[in-house]
Amino acid sequence: MEVNKEKIRYILQFFFDKGENASQAAENVNSVYGPDTVTANYAQFWFRRFRSGIFDVKDAPRTGRPVVENVDKVTEIIEVDRHVSSHSIAQELKIDHKTVLNHLHKAGFKKKLDVWVPHQLTPKNMMDRISICEALAKRNEIGPFLKRMVTGDEK
Q1: Most-buried pick from 48, 117, 135, 146 (CB within 10 A)?
Q2: What pairs with residue 98 in β-bridges?
Q3: CA distances (Å), 60 to each of 8, 42, 51, 57, 95, in order?
């Protein structure tokens, strides 16, 4: 059963208010939500906080660089110009080059012959490929160019 950390902390606070110790609280939580949901050390940590008067169970804001998702912006730039380089996207959005590559990978784009293409075939891409194959087959009926192609290995 999936339980978030904040809910577990509220449950531990309930057991603290009830007067139970940390080990008993951990056992009770694990009996309801499954084994290894809460360790005794985790419960003891929160019980120490509650004893010291800190009853805020929400995660404190963290310091450091904020995480900003630019996947949509990167995708918009790619949709406008498929030939744009990942370095120029990084300069334009003022983010790291590796971050741009990660976003493009998450969005499902691959660089093929200097063009960013979706890794998965969409129905439009599939129809384009089918129409190209049909055009080549008709062209071969008019002037058989496939017979002129040499195929084989090095033997």
Answers
A1: 117
A2: none
A3: 16, 17, 18, 9, 26
- Cβ pair 25, 15 in contact under 8 A: yes
Cα separation, 101 vs 26, in Å, equals 43
How many residues are recorded in the chain?
Answer: 155
CB 43 within 8 A of CB 69: no
State how far the Cα of 108 lies from the Cα of 55, in Å rounded to an integer.
44
Alpha-carbon span 85 to 115, nearest angstrom: 9
pTM of the complete model: 0.44
Residues 6+ away with beta carbon under 8 Å from 115: 82, 83
Mean pLDDT by 10 residues, the chain (155 residues): 82 93 92 90 94 88 68 86 90 89 86 82 81 87 75 63
Cβ atoms 12, 38 nearer than 8 A: yes
* Residues 54 and 46 sit within 8 Å (Cβ to Cβ): no
Rg (CA), the chain: 30
Q: Which residues are registered as beta bridge partners of 110?
A: 117
> What is the three-class DSSP state of 70?
coil
